Amino acid sequence: MDTQQFDALIIGFGKAGKTLAVALANAGKKVALVERSPKMYGGTCINIACIPTKVLVNAAEHHQSFDEAMAHKTTVVTRLNEKNYHMLADRETVSVIEGEASFVDDRTVKIVAGDDELVVSAPQIFINTGAESIIPDIPGVDKPFVYTSTELLDKMTQPKQLAIIGGGYIGLEFASTYAKLGTKVTVFERGDALLAREDPAIARATTEALQAQGIEIVFSVDVTAIEGESTATIRTVNHDDYAGYDAVLMATGRRPATMSLNLPAAGVATDKRGAIVVDETLRTSRSHIWAMGDVTGGPQFTYASLDDFRIVRSQLLGDGLYTRAKQKTLPYAVFMQTPLGRVGMTEAEARATGREIIVKELPAMAIPRLHVDNATTGLLRAVIDANTGQILGASLLCRNSPEVINIIKTVMDNGLPYTVLRDQIFTHPTVSEALNDLFA
């Protein structure tokens, strides 16, 4: 079989991969981009994660029905998927190839789509295959009413009762949204509290907000089996059994999607979780192969993947100065009906550094704008270095927090003291003006 030659081969249509394809094509390179599913043109974010879930969050907030929400979700995802495909496929020097990629050697990749097979080669290869759901070895996980987050987004019939195995960020977003859409939701969490990475005060406030939505949360529970024919019964250790669920979501984490790549054939090293090991410039153990985004085992955010693109672009098309060591602190948001925005350290993490710190706290009830919106649930916390006045971290559990957290990050990135926010003039009535009071 003949081997097709390209200047660059990108495996995976994620944020870093697709953006790099455009940059390399603009630089005159002949680029091949391989994606195993046409449903994933544009990457995880727009197809099965950020965008469709936030469409549902917004629909629930605006009291749309489940059917209306899912129809809108499908329209938005289809539009963005097609836009992303044509953004690359319509370029003369970019070839979008559908199929499953696996390495033959460190410069050659075999691509299989059904009975079709293609071999491509390039002196530079970039891996951007993202992450995939972890399915624990529990009897019954193969039943038709058990779903991953990807599969549940394709279920167009609303579950009357939804069991969610796992109380992490993905599970809580689905719990809050589906509850708002009218589904009875139960969350099964192995630990004795939600959100172990967060300040305990924020975790407690989040739990209370979810319970106020009518969500049942079962703590300190191990699920031993999922049984039943038309509906699910959740069997647990040292707990009662829970029955009557017409859908079960396995929200038990995600891992780097590397299993099918045959990385040993290329000599690309991975860690024990299957994540590709990279250096500060995102080169793998083969200097002409790079890895970007979730597949490296780092934070699973599309904007983190975009920043990985910036590192690779700097190395290949720029001055080479931007590396992982220069990446700023990443903020993140959990888009529940009362969303959580977070950046930097928690109180415990800050105290562990030995710094003298100041903790600021403000209930969402104190924010006039949230009274206007009838959304006074939540809590705002910030941690400040007492000696320098610099903000070490903040957690905002309230409406609009995913937007407002970016203001705090900008102040942190520029080394400015908290007094900049304390004394800033903000428009009124807004949630951002609450930073005056939080940092007072």
UniProtKB/TrEMBL annotation:
A Pfam family annotated for this UniProt entry: Pyr_redox_2
Co-factor requirement: FAD
Residues bound to NAD(+): G166, G167, G168, Y169, I170, G171, L172, E173, E189, G253
Cofactor binding note from Swiss-Prot or TrEMBL: Binds 1 FAD per subunit.
Keyword terms, alphabetized: FAD, Flavoprotein, NAD, Nucleotide-binding
Matching Gene3D superfamilies: 3.30.390.30, FAD/NAD(P)-binding domain
Active site (catalytic residues): H428
InterPro entries: FAD/NAD-bd_sf, FAD/NAD-binding_dom, FAD/NAD-linked_Rdtase_dimer_sf, Pyr_nuc-diS_OxRdtase, Pyr_nucl-diS_OxRdtase_dimer
The organism's place on the tree of life at top rank: Bacteria
Disulfide bonds: C45-C50
Domain Pyridine nucleotide-disulphide oxidoreductase dimerisation: 331-437
Binding annotation for FAD: K54, D294
Domain FAD/NAD(P)-binding: 7-305
MF term (GO), any: flavin adenine dinucleotide binding
Repeat keyword on record: no
Family: Belongs to the class-I pyridine nucleotide-disulfide oxidoreductase family.
Name of the protein: Pyridine nucleotide-disulfide oxidoreductase
